[in-house]
Design goal:
13 helices; 316 residues; single chain
Length: 316
């Protein structure tokens, strides 16, 4: 019996959450066991995504490789945002651990609500305002931002973790703009990862001036002849990254964006389970409390969006 469109959408969104939840596990393994510089890792992740998508598009639909010149400036800026997110994400995973880094990304939900109220005229309301307070409070507890010792011992981790939420907010907002430009989600995925890879390459050629980047050009090939290292690196780019973003794009064609986002918000739960089972990571009691506050706030904000009345169609 064929699945309904909504059932297919739910399945795609759930698959996206599972795929995305494993990316931090791969990254944590590479930075811990191979001591790989985070921005070198981020560069190869983007390069492998592009190397995976191009042959598939050549084989199944070559039209996806083409995009109008008028879209290139926008996709370049979109790629820059993605480069910032991917780079900071790798640094956050390296410094904070897979579970903490993943939860902190969801601070972006609060940032998006605040920016929507400030610049887009969206209403906050009592529920959403309280949820924002929960999100920001939870984020502060998880990151250790309220502890002076955390700023001294893990300054890079705290800053990178907090900024991942901001970058993901910018990425999400630009994703909304893309849907209005009639560009295929897969074409967008290819071009923004290609541009992000170029920006990350430039960052790694800065001579180590940027934290987490390659100290020398030779460090771009940090994994050397390690078969295990390159296998993990290729799997990270080709499977959870392409799969996570791909299934998410599919879910958006079948479900309302608010519904899809609520399901994908299960990602931190899956990451915490994988991080405990595979890496032995555990959260401190204060981080568990912070996670509960943050995810409760995320759920409240998205439920508030879901309950928002749809705009009435305009008369001709």
């Amino acid at each position: 019996m064929a699945m309904s469109r909504s059932a297919q959408g739910y399945s795609a969104a759930l698959a996206s959450a599972v795929f995305l939840s494993t990316t931090s596990i791969f990254i944590r393994h590479l930075v811990t066991d191979f001591d790989m510089p985070p921005l070198v890792l981020a560069f190869w992740r983007n390069a492998i995504v592009v190397a995976t998508l191009i042959p598939v598009m050549l084989l199944f639909n070559r039209k996806l490789l083409r995009v109008g010149r008028t879209h290139i400036p926008f996709l370049t800026v979109f790629g820059l945002m993605l480069a910032g997110f991917n780079g900071l994400w790798a640094i956050s995973v390296a410094q904070n651990g897979a579970a903490v880094a993943t939860v902190m990304v969801y601070c972006s939900v609060a940032y998006t609500a605040i920016l929507g109220w400030k610049f887009l005229g969206e209403s906050l309301g009592t529920l959403k305002f309280g949820a924002i307070i929960l999100c920001l409070g939870g984020c502060a507890l998880i990151s250790g931002a309220l502890s002076a010792s955390a700023w001294q011992s893990n300054l890079l981790g705290v800053v990178a973790g907090l900024l991942t939420g901001l970058c993901y907010t910018a990425y999400s907002l630009m994703g909304r703009v893309t849907s209005n430009r009639a560009i295929s989600p897969w074409t967008t995925l290819l071009y923004i990862f290609a541009f992000a890879g170029m920006f990350l390459l430039l960052a790694n050629l800065s001579g180590g001036l940027i934290p987490g980047s390659a100290a020398t050009p030779a460090d771009l090939f940090w994994l050397g002849r390690s078969i295990e290292g390159w296998t993990v690196m290729i799997l990270l780019g080709a499977i959870p990254t392409v799969g996570g973003y791909g299934f998410y794009n599919v879910s958006l064609t079948l479900l309302d964006a608010s519904v899809a986002n609520i399901i994908v918000s299960l990602e931190p739960l899956f990451t915490a389970v994988f991080a405990f089972a595979l890496l032995g990571e555990t959260l401190a009691p204060v981080q568990i409390l912070g996670s509960a506050l943050l995810l409760s706030g995320v759920a409240a904000i998205k439920l508030a969006d879901l309950r928002r009345p749809m705009p009435l169609p305009q008369e001709a």
